[in-house]
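ok so for the tutorial part 2 we go from a plain amino acid sequence to predicted structure tokens. step 1 is just haveing the sequence, like this:
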Amino acid sequence: MSTPVYEVVKPQVSLRMYLPEVILLLASFATPLLAWAISGSGSMMGRSGRVMVFFVAVAEFVLLNRANKKHIVNGCRVKAKETPWDSSHPATALGITSLIAGLLGTLIWGYGDLVLGR
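step 2 — the prediction. this is what the tokens look like for a chain of 118 residues:
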């Protein structure tokens, strides 16, 4: 039995559309670096990992909120016999970046002070 294939439109959107998510992810990556630069030791790394995960969670929440709205609109498009939209390249890239940042933040949260010393 073959899997059905559906036609979708790949939207052409700019990364600027996702500026809040980009800013939150940049803040998440900057947090442990700033904590290490300011403290000079690993004592603040665990705390900075928590803040990093928080920024990633907020960025992912905003991204998923956009995706939910897109899926509702896609349902309306299908009902109106129009072609639905697929995920854009920036949305996919931000989702992957959020996953990597979340995993990295969790590792820093748990083991950052052990790796860099107390």
